[in-house]
Design brief:
Elements: E1 4-11, E2 26-33, E3 42-50, E4 58-62, E5 66-67, E6 72-74, E7 85-93, E8 99-108, E9 122-124, H1 130-133, E10 152-160, E11 166-174, E12 176-181, E13 184-185, E14 202-208, E15 216-225, H2 227-230, E16 249-257, E17 263-267, E18 273-276, E19 279-283, E20 287-291, E21 313-316, E22 322-324, E23 330-337, E24 340-343, E25 349-366, E26 373-379, E27 381-382, E28 388-389, E29 399-403, E30 409-412, E31 419-427, E32 438-445, E33 451-455, H3 458-474, E34 475-476, E35 478-479, H4 492-505, H5 509-521, H6 549-561, H7 564-584, H8 610-631, H9 635-656, H10 668-676, H11 682-698, H12 707-710, H13 713-719, H14 723-731, H15 738-743, E36 756-757, E37 761-762, H16 779-786, E38 789-791, E39 801-803, E40 813-819, E41 824-831, E42 835-842, E43 848-853, E44 861-862, E45 865-866, H17 867-870, E46 872-877, E47 880-885, E48 888-895
Parallel strand pairs: 14-22, 20-29, 39-43
Antiparallel strand pairs: 1-2, 2-6, 3-4, 3-5, 3-7, 7-8, 9-21, 10-15, 10-18, 11-14, 11-16, 12-13, 12-15, 16-17, 19-20, 23-32, 24-25, 25-30, 25-31, 25-32, 26-29, 26-31, 27-28, 33-40, 34-35, 36-37, 38-39, 40-41, 41-42, 42-48, 43-47, 44-45, 44-48, 46-47
The chain binds alpha-L-rhamnopyranose.
Length: about 900
């Protein structure tokens, strides 16, 4: 019987990736064990290159037995070949030094640019051919969409002498594409190749198409839309879309390997044929127009006569910016049928999905006559008289039009658009649809869910669900805000405040590592990171808290996932950012070059002085650069930035902290930043925390923070010994609070505390998203504070786990689980009248430090035995017993009297 088992094998933080271009990809695994106090004493990795055909596999790396508890290693074997599948397995030795479990996985190398793409060209249409296909004047165009062209259909027929043994399609687009072989989609990925800073890199992905090809004629085809390349992006009013180029293009290489080892390549070039199709336009923000009367005719399959189609033209031959996809693709991950469909007096129908989602509708239509036009409009909410409320979409039309073919049953789902909506209004629909005829397809980057949280308060559970929905809807290729309006940008501050929460719920290591490349690409010559990444439009250098994400995100990824490589690659840019601030602010108060300084964005009645906020971030970034330098073994840099951080801290304390511990401005966010970033002299910390607590009380247990302070509220109050106030804020349901929106039926987190209020109605339509993750950054505390899952301050990758639950508020139980890079951690507590029970799961490896909350530390039992018999007791405090707990599942019980203050 195996006890210690590796699982969750990953390469570059992805499960069996097919497109790896790193020369030394990292291989990692998690551990579980059926034994208590187990740990990995050694491992061995073996990697073999799989021969496509006949000749047998070759071993390319064997680490031999390595005495180590590490659960990841960078490949260091024979040079990896392109377009090759590698199988790898890992064996582990357990705590007794005996061989134990093993597991295997695979990864595949990509085309390895620059040379791998040679021979393929970006192909597109000759604009001159378009009028040939344009239907006579058609009123489907609006002011916005009149510049958009039909989606491009591309096809290439070719013959294969026999069935291949192995075939891979490598594809990308300047735009978005769906590729198919003989009419069958090559994958379920959506909106490929996703958004990246196209001026820097365009991602490509590999697909296994072996099973789709056959002997004889085959057809490779692609449908290509504008996407982020030439469609509407963001809100820059000076541009009618088309940020990167004026029309989309497609690039692909097909590799076919036959059983006898012979290889054949086919690439995109002028031998392809093109034609516009039934999709007259498909834009991410504006929506889609699909005319189903156009006969399909099997255009993407063999046998179709394409002789009337013009040849594609070459848009460019520079393929050097193509890079292997870094993260999971976007997919449709669930489908939600409407919960209610109602007919309106004006003849329209409104369907309610019951959940604010990001995606699109799959509509079933029966018995419509050919040419009937059905218009779908989307909105997050309704106006007071029950109609769609679309004012907050600003210029985004979020309008799909389907022209019926007249088939008895038609099913329509747009291809290259997605909307942020809960309600869809149908006009022109024949009759009233059944709920199952209107189904919401939920789209997002398919990062695996790794966290679970539940507790005894349904409102807090709904808040947690809303936070997750915000993550789903806004993680579409890049982390964005506002999926409904003409924005959807990768705002840096939003991302850095939410990352710890995002990483609780899902494995976002690859997703954020990919986005960091856009952050780095957006750094300007002076060293400033941007406000948004990918960088677009009128935004210039990043504001305090925004640009700082260029330092904070790599650091956080290192802490949460042990990803040292991202720290190493980002390090030069991180130093340049800090130097940029220093150079323009020699007295170390950050007031010059603050970009568009957003302050504590969307705070509610408590403006934190700009210099306080900015200087606090300056200290933080300098400190993190120093810490990163230590991790990376750069003592000279470490000393330099530690000294800078100390200087900025000193200046902050001199200028902004009074002798009574007051932080200039006296706002919650001011105290939170000062306390969290260590800017208050130690002797004044308690006083400063007291002012923070007093402010919360003065506001009758309401928060006043915006995006910058919000993630720190509960953690800082908890550390200051005021968990009672953290819970008071969590349970608060009058305005402003997290549960205020929950009380009013929110199914996602809002951008603004006052997005809607009973007195004021909707906030200004100029900026009012009902699906935004920033204010949901309290999610981290649900796992880390309420359930208590965390790690020691100097630990990375959960090497030194700390479990410190904080029972309190109205909760009588809470439970969380989290798959970390090391393995699964669980913490669940429940209270009865006079006892607390705590169940903890510690993955194999170093013992965890568990703080058992109890009013009588002497009463703690571990698995039914006095604590000292089972675990090493580290400390007894008033209110908790601290012990070193070996891996495995343990139950703690102890005396409990709720001593926390009552919730008002
Ligand atoms: C708005 C959004 C976004 C925020 C910027 C400053 O566009 O709220 O999330 O980061 O402002």
């Amino acid at each position: 019987m195996r006890s210690l088992v590796p699982y969750g094998l990953a390469c570059e933080f992805l499960d069996e990736p097919t497109t790896v271009d790193e020369s030394a990809p990292r291989l990692s695994w998690r551990l579980r064990s059926s034994r208590v106090a187990d740990r990995q004493s050694a491992y061995r990795i073996r990697v073999t290159a799989e021969a496509a055909t006949g000749s047998g596999d070759t071993e390319v790396w064997d680490t031999g037995r390595i005495e180590s508890d590490a659960t990841s290693a960078a490949y260091d074997g024979a040079a990896l070949r392109r377009c090759t599948r590698y199988r790898w397995d890992v064996e582990v030795w357990n705590r007794d030094g005996r061989p134990d479990g093993h597991a295997s996985s695979s990864f595949e190398t990509g085309l390895r640019n620059p040379d791998g793409w040679a021979g393929a060209a970006w192909i597109t249409r000759d604009e001159n051919t378009l009028p040939l296909f344009e239907p006579p004047r058609d009123d489907h165009r609006t002011l916005n969409t009149r510049h958009l062209a039909p989606c491009l259909r591309l096809r290439r027929a070719f013959a294969l002498p026999r069935r291949p043994a192995r075939a891979r399609l490598y594809a990308s687009a300047q735009g978005v594409y769906r590729a198919s072989v003989n009419g069958r989609p090559v994958s379920d990925a959506e909106l490929e190749p996703g958004w990246s800073d196209y001026r820097d890199r365009v991602q490509y992905r590999a697909y296994d198409v072996t099973a789709l090809l056959g002997q004889g004629t085959n057809v490779l085809a692609a449908l290509v839309g504008d996407g982020w390349w030439s469609g509407f992006v963001g809100f820059d009013p000076r541009r009618a879309g088309k940020i990167y180029g004026d029309r989309p293009a497609f690039v692909a290489r097909l590799l076919v390997e036959f059983p006898d080892g012979e290889r054949m390549w086919l690439g995109t070039d002028e031998t392809w044929r093109e034609s516009p199709g039934p999709v007259r336009h498909s834009d991410l923000l504006m929506g889609e127009f699909h005319d189903a009367r156009e006969p399909h005719g099997g255009w993407d399959r063999p046998g179709f006569d394409d002789s009337g189609w013009p040849r594609a033209i070459v848009a460019g031959r520079d393929t050097t910016k193509l890079r292997a996809a870094r993260a999971q693709p976007v997919r449709v991950t669930s489908r939600l049928p409407a919960v209610e469909v109602s007919a309106r007096p004006d003849g329209t129908v409104i369907a309610d999905l019951g959940q604010n989602i990001v995606g699109r509708v799959r509509l079933t239509v029966r018995g419509a006559e050919p040419g009937r036009r059905i218009v779908l409009r989307h909105a997050e909410t309704l106006d007071p008289d029950g109609g769609l409320y679309t004012a907050n979409l600003r210029r985004a039309e979020a309008r799909d039009v389907y022209v019926c073919s007249g088939e008895p049953v038609e099913v329509y789902e747009p291809v290259f658009t997605c909307h942020g909506f809960r309600y869809v209004e149908l006009s022109g629909y024949p009759g009233v649809p059944e709920p199952g005829d209107v189904v919401g397809a939920v789209l997002h980057s398919d990062t695996p869910w790794t966290g679970e949280f539940s507790c005894g308060d349904p409102d807090v559970e709904r808040l947690h669900a809303n936070i997750r929905w915000g993550q789903r809807g806004n993680f579409v290729s890049v982390p964005t805000d506002c999926p409904q309006r003409d924005e959807r940008l990768g705002w840096l501050a939003d991302a850095q405040v939410f990352l710890p929460t995002a990483a609780r719920g899902a494995d976002v290591a690859a997703f954020f590592a990919g986005w960091m490349e856009d952050v780095l690409a957006g750094q300007d010559e002076d060293g400033a990171f941007g406000d948004v990444a990918p960088k677009v439009s009128i935004l210039r250098e990043g504001a305090p808290g925004w640009g700082d994400a260029g330092v904070i995100v790599p650091w956080t990824l290192y802490r949460l996932y042990g990803d040292e490589r991202i720290l190493d690659r980002s390090f030069p840019a991180m130093t340049r950012w800090v130097e940029h601030i220093r150079r323009h602010n020699p007295d170390l108060v950050w007031r010059h070059r603050t970009g568009r300084h957003y302050g504590d964005w969307l705070q509610i009645g408590a403006e934190t002085p700009r210099e306080v906020l900015a200087t606090a971030y300056f200290a933080r970034s300098a400190e993190l650069v120093g810490k990163a330098a230590r991790v990376l073994g750069r003592p000279g840099d470490a000393e330099r930035y530690e000294a800078l951080a100390a200087d900025v801290r000193r200046v902050f304390a001199d200028r902004f902290v009074g002798p009574d511990g007051r932080v200039h401005g006296d706002t919650q966010t001011g105290y939170l930043l000062a306390l969290e970033f260590g800017l208050v002299p130690p002797e004044l910390e308690q006083a400063a925390a007291g002012h923070l607590a007093a402010d919360v009380e003065k506001h009758d247990h309401h928060l006043t923070t915006g995006f910058i302070g919000v993630s720190l509220l509960c953690p800082v109050l908890t550390r200051a010994g005021r968990t009672d106030l953290a819970y008071a804020l969590l349970h608060q349901d009058t305005f402003p609070s997290w549960l205020f929106s929950v009380r009013h039926g929110a199914t996602t987190v809002w951008e603004r505390w006052d997005g809607w209020t009973p007195d004021g109605g909707f906030q200004s339509a100029n900026m009012n998203s009902f699906n935004h993750y920033s204010l949901g950054a309290v999610g981290d505390w649900l796992y880390g504070g309420v359930a208590g899952i965390g790690q020691a301050p100097d630990s990375a990758g959960y090497r030194h786990i700390v479990v410190r639950p904080r029972p309190g508020g109205r909760l009588t139980w809470a439970s969380a689980a989290q798959e970390t890079v090391r393995g699964r951690i669980e913490s669940a507590w429940s209270l009865t009248d006079d006892r607390i029970a705590l169940d903890v799961l510690v993955p194999p490896g170093e013992p965890a430090t568990v703080h058992v909350p109890t009013t009588a530390p002497g009463t703690v039992l571990v698995d039914g035995r006095p604590a000292a018999e089972r675990v090493e007791v580290l400390a007894r405090h008033d209110g908790e017993l601290v012990c070193a707990v070996p891996s495995g599942r343990h139950r703690f019980t102890a005396a409990w009297h709720p001593t926390h203050r009552r919730i008002p």
